Each structure stands twice: as structure tokens, then as C-alpha cells.
Amino acid sequence: MKERKKESILMTSLRLFSKNGFHDTTIPLIAKEMRMSVGNIYNYFPSKNNLAKCAIKFASSILASTLRKINEKDLTTKEKIEHFVESYYNIIEISPEIIEYFLRVYLSNRSLFQSESDGGFELAKDFIGEVERLIDNGVKKRELRKQNFFVSFSVFIGTLGGMTFLNGENVLERKPIHYSKEISESIYNALKV
Amino acid sequence: MKERKKESILMTSLRLFSKNGFHDTTIPLIAKEMRMSVGNIYNYFPSKNNLAKCAIKFASSILASTLRKINEKDLTTKEKIEHFVESYYNIIEISPEIIEYFLRVYLSNRSLFQSESDGGFELAKDFIGEVERLIDNGVKKRELRKQNFFVSFSVFIGTLGGMTFLNGENVLERKPIHYSKEISESIYNALKV
Amino acid sequence: MKERKKESILMTSLRLFSKNGFHDTTIPLIAKEMRMSVGNIYNYFPSKNNLAKCAIKFASSILASTLRKINEKDLTTKEKIEHFVESYYNIIEISPEIIEYFLRVYLSNRSLFQSESDGGFELAKDFIGEVERLIDNGVKKRELRKQNFFVSFSVFIGTLGGMTFLNGENVLERKPIHYSKEISESIYNALKV
Amino acid sequence: MKERKKESILMTSLRLFSKNGFHDTTIPLIAKEMRMSVGNIYNYFPSKNNLAKCAIKFASSILASTLRKINEKDLTTKEKIEHFVESYYNIIEISPEIIEYFLRVYLSNRSLFQSESDGGFELAKDFIGEVERLIDNGVKKRELRKQNFFVSFSVFIGTLGGMTFLNGENVLERKPIHYSKEISESIYNALKV
DNA sequence: TATGAATGAGGCTTCATTCAT
DNA sequence: TATGAATGAAGCCTCATTCAT
After folding, report:
1. What are the angstrom distances between the C-alpha of C70 and each of B27, B53, C193, D52, D69?
2. What are the CA-CA distances from residue D70 to residues A22, D3, D59, D131, D160 (Å)?
3. What are the pLDDT digits (tens) for D86-99?
4. Dihedrals φ, ψ of D176, to 5°?
5. Mean pLDDT score, C97-110
6. Which residues contact residue D122 at a Cβ distance below 8 angstroms, ignoring those fewer than 6 apart?
7. Torsional sign, CA B28, B34, B40, B42
8. Alpha-carbon distance D34 to D56, whole Å?
9. How many whole angstroms separate alpha carbon D139 and alpha carbon D147?
10. What is the CA radius of gyration of chain B?
């Protein structure tokens, strides 16, 4: 199945990109890792850039769907934050590349994504939309303070990103999930009414 | 003066690196921007990698000295956080490259800095040390909660980084400094007792 | 056939290296001569240095096999020397680059080959081994004087090298093979009991 | 004195060229070794190529004058050869660069010297002339066989060059001078009537 | 679909040489 | 004479992409 193989290439690329960065991951390397020929990769993706864009969408959709499931549950905002922080670190434990990809590729290769209408921001729209929903709901239910969305977003995602970075640098003494309680508490305190 | 020119190259590189990322900033581009020849760059820095490392140290020392001055004042921790957030966004307004460099280059080009004994972490030690001092003092004075340092660090720096990223993506309606009150409040709430 | 082309690149490089020396033979020049692209050369040899090393081995093995065949014949040492000198100059006539390569590249670019365990000496081991066998046998059969091997080696190979050099400089009035009788006589006289 | 300094630059260059080869010896390196500025070198020699040519002449004249002194003595040819071989290895012990220069630079950078009318051969004329005198005299005095000069020259100089090479490769167990008796005997046997 | 040899533009870096001081 | 910053051409090598098979 073509779609099957396409996704497999995507996963492999995601892993390599997030490990080595976009520029240090060559198409021959991806091909070798996939045990297919260089030329054949191009039967599935028209360019390396496109591969990177698809990877962003892919990673974003995984995070989005995780968060969507939580959003749909009947939980307090505090609990939702706790659940998401935990899920987030579960993902890091199982597939760190999904998260690290944002840090290593998306943040630092702007030019790659700028051809997109809105500077590539659209590529992560799914995920950002779910964060927005979580926060808006919290505000509506008077559990979170009303403040500029981008500030709340930064507190939420920036904090998680910071821990992810530190984890990638191997400076944490324990696995990130160990800190999830403190983290969700911090985030909740930052945003609560 | 040779030292003068060296610093000038550093600033230019910092700007270009932070705008385009490390790989999309070529030495010929830096040279062109400096209106000097390619070869002459190498009279000041032995390699592009070294230039990137020096830039990190440079940016880190600016942030560190800003924070050091605030740490030395006799202020409550809340006020210190407010002052730093403001200074931070002042820097972003005047020289956004100093901050963005961390985001676009340091965070995302691990391999560049890994030859350093400490995985390159050392390069930002100055700055990290001052953050640590701010937080530790806050804890000692019973103004901040006692929790794992890395968590507090992530809340603090991750939030600022998040806003910096959003600013770089041009999604903010107003200049970042406009949000500094909300941000410092969020950070303080996240960390306070 | 990939192996075919690899050997063809090797021969071309050998010729150019021996004509112009290592440093004045550029990869673009080799590529042009081969009518292939620069990049494609690197599909066959990982570096210019490696190309030079392979060329040494190649040239050494040709000389070695020539000499081995002579060693295996049932001849007096005098005759063996005569045969080899003649073969040697036949090679010079047909493929002077094989011999000149030693003179122009191997002798003079120590640093190129020094990464090898043995200072690069190993690269010519095949050939040196056969020379050793020729001389040792002569000594055993009481046809040659017993003296330090390196001295005998120098007389033997140095003399041939000298003539090769003079030939390359175009100072000889006739083809080197014309002098082979005088040369083998000189060498034999130098070494005989 | 300008002439003094010129010679000093020449000696330094000779040493560096013979150690590292022509291409791996940079003008900045020579300047550093001389403790003078790069630009100032050019007040003494118009180009790096010219420096190399002058170095050949210089080295050749030293060898030539050594040999001339021996030629002028009243000795048998056998003794002259012995004396020269000894002097040669004395030079190697004191200033190996003078000899090695021929091996490392002259032999392998033909293009450097080819602009000269006769392919650069002229540069070593002094020395070659003295070798010629030694051999011609030997022939006249019926001590040496009459044979093509270039063959005799190759035996003589090739043998010495071979030992020099082996010495440079550090494969000799003892200093070259230790072998000088065997060498001069071999050379003499090769050439005698 | 699949292969992998081939292309060629472009990046980093070096270094002989010049020139303002 | 002396300095050393500046120039710029040129070399090695990489890699996204294509294409004949």
C-alpha cells in the first residue's frame, strides 16, 4: 500500500530530522535507513522540503489528537492540564522525535516553511487550535484567568518545550515524566484565576 | 582596531544566524553584509562553527549581565521578575537577534556545540547561573515555591522563549513588550509559594 | 560495471598525478579528463587522498607481479636482473605513469600516506617484498654479495629511478630501454660477489 | 645586510619545503618561522615559486662545491667516490634539508621549474657538472668503465637518493653514514672497468 | 515501482599576493 | 624596510535531484 510506505518514510524522516536536524539529515541517509533507493523516495515525496512540511503536519496532528481526546472529556481545566502534561511526557518517552522535531526543525528552519501562506504557522494549526480550545474553555468556566491567548499559550507550551530541551541535553536527573506533577501545577498556577 | 571589527562581525553573524538559521547563513553572505572579503572573515574567526560558538557566548553574556544587575538590586522577587521580563523585551525590541539566536541556533543545532566538554551547555552557563540565583534567592526569601530547579527554569525561560518565537513568526498583534505585565504575572504566579 | 569504471578513474588519476604531481592535479581536472562530473568521482573514491593511496597500491602491484614472474623462473640472478630491467623499461614505454607515480607522488608526499600504520611504506610492500626475494636468493646462491639489504635495494631501485627521472626530464637522447643492458650490467656489478 | 637576510630566508624555506613539501609550506609559515611579516618576505623574493627555484640553486651549489673540492684533490676515483659518499651523508646528518629538498620538491613539482628554459634542469647544472667531471676523469684514467653518462649518473645519484629516501622513511636501523662504506663500494663496483 | 549512477551548483576554507600605513 | 589586514580565486567535498534502465 502506497499510503503505508509513505507514512513509514515520514516516521523515519521525523526521527532522523529530530535527531540530527534538517540539514544534517540527507536523503541518502533516509533512503538507507528505509532500505530503499534514493530515487524511490522521490516517488513518494516531491522534495526534501516537502518531506519536512509533511512531518510537521504529522507531528502536529498527533499532538492535536492527544489533546482533542482530553478536551472532549468532562474534566476540570486543572485536570485537563495534568492529563496533557502526562500524555506529553508519555509521548516523549515513546517517540521523543515527535516533540523534538518542533524544537530542532520547526523552530530553526524558518525558511523551509515560509513559502506557506502564513509563514508555516498553518502547519501546526491543528495543535494550536486544540490548545486554544483548552484555554478558552477554562476561561469560560472561570477556571482560568482571561488574558491574551498568546501569553497563555507561551506559558503552556514554552514550559513544556523548555523541559523537552533540557531532557534532550541530558541535564535532567530523571525522566521528564517524573516532573509532570510539578509542571502541571506550575502551569495551572500561572493561568488560573 | 582588530577587536572592534571582530565584535562587528559577531553582531552581524548573530543577526543573520538568528534570522536564517545556521545552515542558511553562509560565510559569503556574512562577508557581503560586512562588506569585506570572504577570506578576511577567517582572519578573525577560524571557522564558521567557532563563529557560532562565540556568538552564543556573546549573547549569553549580554543576557547574563542584564539579569545580574537586576539580581543585585534590592527588590522583591516579584519585582525582579517584572524587571527582567521588561529588560528582556527591551532587548528584543532593540536587538531581537540576541534572543532569537538562542531559539534558532542554539536550541536546534546540538551537533555544532557538542564538541564542547559539556555538550555546549557551558556556553550559556553565565546566563543560566543568574537565573538560578534569582530563583534560589526567591525560594530562600520564601517568595517562591521550592521545586525542582529545572521546572522553574523551564517555566521562566520557556515562557519568554515562547513569546519570542511567536513574535518572530509575526503572529502577535503588538510588540512583545506590551505583554510584559501579563507575562511576568503569569511567571510569578507559576512560581510563587 | 562499477569496478571497471573505478579502475579507469584510477588509471587516469595515476597518469595525471604522475604528470603534474599530487597538488597540481585537481579533482575537476580528473573529472574533465574522465568526462564525468566532479561529484561522480566521489561515488567511486571517498577522497582525493584515498585515490592517491589506491593508485600507489595499484602501481605497486603491477611492478610486484612483473617481478614475481621473473623471480619464479629458473634463471641466474644476473639474468633476473636483466629481465627485470627490461620489463621495467617496457612498462615505462607503455605506461610511464606507473613508474613515475612513485617518483612524483609517493616519494614526495610523505604526509599523504603517513596516516597509514606503517608510514605508508606498507602500500608498496608487495613490490619491496619481491625485490627482497630477488636479492636474498642471489645471496643464497652466492651470486650476490652479502650486504645490508637497504643498500642493495637502493642501488637497484635508485638506479632505475634515476634513469626514470632523467627520462621524464627529456634529457636522454634515446628511449630508456636502449640503455637497459648497461644498466643491468651496472647493477649486477654493484651487487655481485 | 640585505643579502644576509635573503640567505636566511632561503635556508628557512629550504628546511620547511623539504620537511613539508612545497604546497604544504605556506608563506605565512615561513614568515612566522623567520619572525618577520608576510609582506616583508616579498621584499626579498618576488614569489613563492622564485623562492623554490633559488632554493634549488642554493642546495645544488652546496653539493657542487663539496664535490668540486673532492674533484680537485689528487685521489683515485675510488677514493673520490668514498669521500663524496661520506660528505654526502655528513650533509644529511647536519642539514638533511639540503638533500631532501631534491627528493621532496625538485622531483615532484616539475611544473614549478618548467618555466626555465630547459625544464629546470639548469638549476642543478652546477652539481651535475661536477658529477660529470668525476666520472669523465675516472674514465680517462681507466678506472671507470666507459658507458653512457646518464647511466653512470643514475647509479651514482640514484643509489644515494634511495638511501636518503629510506632514511627519511625511518626504516634504516642506523644512521646513513654507517652504510657509507658499503655504498661507495657498490657504486664503485658498478662503475669500475 | 524501484534502482543508483550521474549531475552540478554551492558551501567552507586556504593562501599567494597586494597595499595602505 | 616592515607590517598584517584585505582580497579573491581556486580547491575539496556534499547532496538534492534527475533519469536511463
Report:
1. 58, 62, 21, 42, 43
2. 71, 28, 17, 11, 17
3. 999 999 888 888 88
4. -55, -35
5. 80
6. D116
7. negative
8. 19
9. 9
10. 18
3-state secondary structure of A192: strand
Q: Which residue in chain A is spatially nearest to B120 when comparing CA positions?
A: A169
The answer to whether residues A173 and B173 touch, using CB atoms and an 8 Å cutoff, is no
CA distance linking residue B46 with residue D9, whole number of Å = 27
Mutate to test the interface with C, among D150, D169, D193 (most CBs of C within 10 A): D150
* CB spacing of D154 vs C183 below 8 angstroms: yes
Beta bridge partners of A192: A144
A66, A84 contact by CB (below 8 A)? yes
> Which set of grid coordinates corresponds to residue C54?
589506491
Place of cell 509542571: A183
Q: Are A71 and A78 in contact (CB under 8 A)?
A: no
**Which residues of D in 14-43 have their CB below 7 Å from strand E's atoms?**
23-28, 38-39, 42
Band the pLDDT of C169: cuts 50, 70, 90: confident
D33 or A100, greater pLDDT: D33
* Banded model confidence at residue B165, pLDDT cuts 50, 70, 90: confident
d(CA B121, CA B160): 19
Query: H-type helices in C21-94, by residue range?
Result: 27-34, 38-41, 48-72, 77-94
Task: Give the integer Cα–Cα distance in Å for B47 and B36.
Answer: 16
Contacts of residue B110 in chain A, CB cutoff 8 Å?
Answer: 21, 104, 168-169
Q: Which residue of C has its CA nearest to D164?
A: C154
Task: Name the β-bridge partners of A144.
Answer: A192
What band does B43 get if pLDDT is binned at 50, 70 and 90?
very high
CA angle D151, D157, D162 (to 5 degrees): 115
Q: By three-state DSSP, how is residue B119 classified?
A: coil
* pLDDT band (50, 70, 90) for residue C165: confident
Which residue in the set A24, A150, A161 is minimally distant from B158, CB to CB?
A161
Would residue D36 be called left, alpha or beta, if left means φ above 0 and alpha means ψ between -120 and 50 degrees? beta
Q: With DSSP H G I counted as helix, E B as strand and the rest as coil, what are the percentages for chain A, rounded to 5?
A: 75, 0, 25
* Separation of alpha carbons C123 and C61, rounded Å: 9
* Residue B144: DSSP 8-state: B
Compute the C-alpha angle C16/C21/C25, nearest 5°: 55
Provide the CATH topology of domain C52-191. Answer: Tetracycline Repressor; domain 2 (1.10.357)
> For the range C142-145, what are the long-range contacts, defined as Cβ-Cβ under 8 Å and sequence gap of 24 or more?
C142/C193, C143/C76, C143/C77, C143/C78, C143/C192, C143/C193, C144/C77, C144/C191, C144/C192, C144/C193, C145/C191, C145/C192, C145/C193
What burial letters (b/e) apply to A99-118, b meaning 16+ CB within 10 Å?
bbbbbbbbbbbbebbeeeee
**Residue position matching grid coordinates 510569578:** B188
State the Cα–Cα distance between residues C9 and C34, nearest whole angstrom: 7
Compute the radius of gyration of chain D from its Cα atoms.
18
CA distances from B1 to B8, B10, B14, B50 (A): 11, 14, 20, 21
Collapsed DSSP state (helix, strand, coil) of residue B120: coil
pLDDT score recorded for residue A116: 63
The answer for residues whose C-beta is within 8 angstroms of residue B46's C-beta and 6 or more apart is none
